[in-house]
Specification:
about 425 residues, alpha/beta, 2 domains, 4-stranded parallel sheet
């Protein structure tokens, strides 16, 4: 198969993103950013001046360290990048699970496998964490966009033919970031024998080790991750209306707002213990987030969106310091709550949080993990680089630039190099 040089370069550098992601998952804590954003100097927030250099531009209106958005990145792949797929010989099925931060990785692996073995990919269903929490793909995502985006890469169908039973499919477990060697050794023989397979992707930090192997599938994986998923129009309408509501509540700051991934249930599980003298932790509670935002200069009237679905008493300290703090139940249109807030921790709620955090002016991850990593990816691609990681909160004199996410400050030009 012919290989475009851009495809190879994009593929190799895309692996850097997963190495970073794997290191974060393996450590299970935030990296404290010891170096400043490239080319940045401290901004004088108390005066009417703005100090800017290189990649950082702050707008100072006396209300906080708001940063200007950067340029959106353009995908480096085109239709001409890909050779036509082989004739389809069977089917690959799979399910999307665990939330949108996992969906994009599961789709990436399924596309790579289907392309390699020459199979037709069946549109997946979506399964939540609770029994019976199942949805059709088209309830959450735009199925026509998904099919069209993969045209010329693999064949995609919305359902299996009536004469084929899912009970006859062989279940094959594959590691996230599945390689060509793994497919050749552990997947393709089963596919040839059975004719149809059902994939189950598992996530392991061991699989995130750096590899020097070049693969023709890297560009397909990149396309699948960043070019296939768009929200269904109904879901997108809800997300847009909530963002518009948050912006209307923040007129003082030209509509800017902060999204904080802070979920009380996860904080209780993780206990938010420190992990060393540097102040790095796996998560931060409401009080720590409130003190962090005030310390780096955000005004008390700043509008804040929390991924916590419904208000919890432990969040009161945050609202005391930032009265304009809201959960989704406060900013979602009333006529949409029955459908989209029907149950705690539903797939709809996860998707809404993921996309609001991706589009906010500032993102603060209070919890480490894949949600943080993949929200960072979508933000960097769209030019929204202001991702602030709280660290060393007590007594630190560090400026806001010292709290930039390492995804942005160290590697963003490499991590998402399938865009240019």
């Amino acid at each position: 198969m012919g290989v475009d040089l851009r495809q190879v370069v994009a593929g190799i550098l895309t692996l850097t993103m997963f190495v970073m992601l794997g290191n974060m998952i393996k450590r299970e804590h935030f990296d404290y950013v010891e170096e400043k954003f490239p080319g940045a100097v401290d901004a004088e927030f108390d005066s009417g001046k703005v100090t800017e250099r290189g990649l950082v531009t702050f707008k100072n209106m006396g209300d906080g360290p708001w940063m200007e958005d950067g340029q959106q990145l353009r995908p480096c792949w085109t239709e001409s990048t890909f050779d036509q797929p082989a004739r389809s010989k069977g089917f690959v099925t799979f399910s999307l699970t665990n939330g949108p931060e996992y969906h994009i990785l599961q789709i990436s692996d399924a596309v790579v496998v289907a392309r390699y073995v020459g199979a037709t990919l069946v549109i997946p269903d979506i399964r939540g964490n609770k029994p019976g929490d199942e949805r059709k793909f088209e309830e959450v995502y735009d199925v026509e966009k998904f099919v069209k985006s993969l045209d010329g890469v693999i064949k995609v169908v919305k359902a299996l033919p009536n004469d084929i039973s899912i009970r006859d499919f062989a279940v094959v477990k594959v590691p996230n970031r599945v390689t060509e060697d793994h497919i050749a050794q552990s997947v393709e023989p089963i596919f040839k024998t059975k004719g149809n397979i059902r994939l189950a992707t598992y996530f392991s930090s061991v699989n995130m080790r750096k590899t020097t192997q070049k693969s023709n599938t890297d560009s397909f994986a990149c396309l699948a991750m960043f070019g296939t998923l768009e929200l269904h129009s109904d879901v997108n309408e809800v997300v847009n209306s909530m963002i518009e509501r948050l912006r209307s509540l923040s007129r003082k700051f030209d509509g800017r707002f902060i999204a904080v991934d802070l979920r009380v249930d996860l904080l209780k599980k993780n206990s938010c213990h420190g992990s060393g003298s540097s102040g790095t932790k796996s998560c931060y509670d409401a009080k720590e987030i409130a003190l962090f935002l005030r310390k780096i200069g955000f005004d008390k009237d700043t509008t804040i969106y929390l991924t916590q679905s419904r208000w919890d008493g432990s969040l009161d300290i945050l609202k005391d310091l930032f009265p304009n703090t809201y959960t989704k139940e406060r900013v979602m249109p009333e006529d949409k709550k029955t459908k989209f807030l029907e149950s705690e921790d539903s797939e709809f709620e996860k998707v809404i949080d993921f996309y609001i955090c991706s589009r906010s002016d500032v993102f603060v991850p209070a919890i480490s993990g894949l949600f943080y990593a993949n929200v960072a990816g979508k933000r960097i691609v769209s030019g929204k680089n202001q991702i602030l990681v709280p660290a060393d909160i007590q007594g630190s004199s560090a400026s806001v630039t010292d709290h930039f996410s390492p995804y942005v400050s160290k590697k963003n030009h490499l991590a998402y190099s399938c865009f240019c």
